[in-house]
Specification:
By secondary structure, the chain is mostly helical. 77% of the residues lie in helices and 2% in strands. The protein is built from 12 helices and 2 strands. A two-stranded antiparallel sheet has the order 1-2. Helix 9 packs across helix 10. The longest helix is centred in the middle third of the chain and has 34 residues. The N and C termini lie far apart (71 Å). The N terminus is likely disordered.
C-alpha cells in the first residue's frame, strides 16, 4: 500500500486549477476584471512605496511598516492573479507540480509575513496612543528594522515548513485542485486517507501562532480604545481614532477572511464559497489597502499628489 501511494504521488506532474467559468465570454470577463484589479494594485502600492521612500517627511515608523506592507501586497497579488488571468485568457487549467509548490510557498511566505506585520503595526498604534512619550525610544529606527525583519522571517519559516510538509504527503485522489490557485486545504483533499494528518498537525502549530497574534491585536486595541475614550476633547478623540481605523479595517478584513478560509468546518465548504473567500483574502486586500491607509493620512496624500504632479510635468 505504501509503495502504491508513493507511486501515485510521484506520477503527478501537474495540477488542474479551478476555472472561474466554462463560457468563453465569462472567462474573458474574468480576465479583464482581474487585470483591472491587478493594475490598480500595482499602481497604488507602487506609488505608496515610491512616495515613502523619496519623501523624508514620511520616514516615520508607521510609514516604514506601511512600505513593507505594500511590498508584501505587491508580492502576494503577483503570486496568484497573473496565473489566474493567464488561465482564463488561454482557457487552460494546468499548473506544473513545481509551479504549484512555488505558489504554496509564496502564498504562505507573503501572507504569513503580512499577518506578522499587521501585529507589529498594532503595537505601533498602541505605543503611539497609550505611550506617546516613549514612542521614539520604543520604536527607534533599529527597533523598526528588527521588527520588520522578524515579520518577514516568520513568514519565510512558516512557508518552508508548510510547503515541505504538504508536498511530502502522498497524493492519490487525482490532481484537480478546487481553487484558482494552489491552496493547502485544497491540496490536502487529494491526500491518501490519513496521510494528511501530519500536515494538519503542522497547520495546528500555525493556527496557534496566528491565534497568539490575533489576541495581541485585540488586546492592543482594547487598550487603545480605553485610552482614546479618556481623551477630553472631541477633536483629540477624532484624531486618535483616525490614526487607528485604517489599520483596524485592513487587519479585520485580512484576518476574518483567512480564518474563515482555513478554519471553517467541512460542512460549509463548497467550490463557489471557497472561491469567493479566496478572492476576498488574496485579491481584494492588496488592491484596497493603499486606499484605506492613504484616506486618513494627509502627509501621505500630499506626498502622492506631489509625486504624481512631478511625473506629469516631467512628461510635458
Amino acid at each position: 500500500m505504501r509503495r502504491k501511494q508513493m507511486s501515485n504521488h510521484s506520477s503527478i506532474t501537474e495540477f488542474l486549477l479551478l476555472a472561474f467559468a466554462d463560457m468563453r465570454e465569462l472567462q474573458l470577463l474574468h480576465f479583464w476584471l482581474f487585470l483591472g484589479i491587478y493594475l490598480a494594485a500595482l499602481l497604488a502600492n507602487g506609488l505608496i512605496i515610491t512616495a515613502i521612500a523619496c519623501d523624508h517627511r514620511l520616514h516615520t515608523p508607521m510609514n516604514f511598516f506601511l512600505l513593507n506592507l505594500s511590498l508584501l501586497d505587491l508580492g502576494s497579488i503577483s503570486t496568484t492573479v497573473p496565473k489566474a488571468m493567464a488561465s482564463s485568457l488561454w482557457d487552460t487549467r494546468a499548473i506544473s507540480f513545481l509551479g504549484c509548490a512555488a505558489q504554496v510557498f509564496f502564498v504562505f511566505f507573503l501572507f504569513g509575513a503580512e499577518y506578522s506585520l499587521l501585529t507589529v503595526m498594532a503595537y505601533d498604534r498602541y505605543v503611539a496612543i497609550c505611550k506617546p512619550l516613549h514612542y521614539g525610544t520604543l520604536l527607534g529606527s533599529r527597533a523598526c528594522v528588527h521588527m520588520a525583519a522578524a515579520a518577514w522571517g516568520s513568514g519565510f519559516l512558516h512557508a518552508v515548513l508548510h510547503t515541505a510538509n504538504t508536498f511530502s504527503v502522498p497524493l492519490c485522489q487525482g490532481n484537480a485542485v478546487d481553487q484558482f490557485f494552489c491552496e493547502i486545504p485544497q491540496i490536502l483533499k487529494l491526500a491518501c486517507s490519513d496521510a494528511y494528518l501530519r500536515e494538519v498537525g503542522v497547520l495546528a502549530v500555525g493556527v496557534c501562532f496566528g491565534f497568539g497574534c490575533f489576541v495581541f491585536i485585540v488586546l492592543s486595541y482594547v487598550q487603545i480604545f480605553r485610552a482614546v475614550l479618556r481623551i477630553p476633547s472631541e477633536q483629540g478623540r477624532y484624531k486618535a481614532f483616525s490614526m487607528c481605523l485604517p489599520h483596524l479595517a485592513v487587519a479585520s478584513l485580512f484576518i476574518s477572511t483567512v480564518m474563515f478560509a482555513y478554519l471553517k468546518p467541512p460542512s460549509l465548504s463548497s467550490p463557489s464559497l471557497d472561491l469567493l473567500v479566496a478572492v476576498l483574502y488574496s485579491v481584494v486586500p492588496p488592491a484596497v489597502n493603499p486606499f484605506l491607509y492613504s484616506i486618513r493620512n494627509q502627509d501621505l496624500q500630499d506626498a502622492l499628489k506631489k509625486l504624481i504632479q512631478s511625473v506629469i510635468f516631467q512628461k510635458q
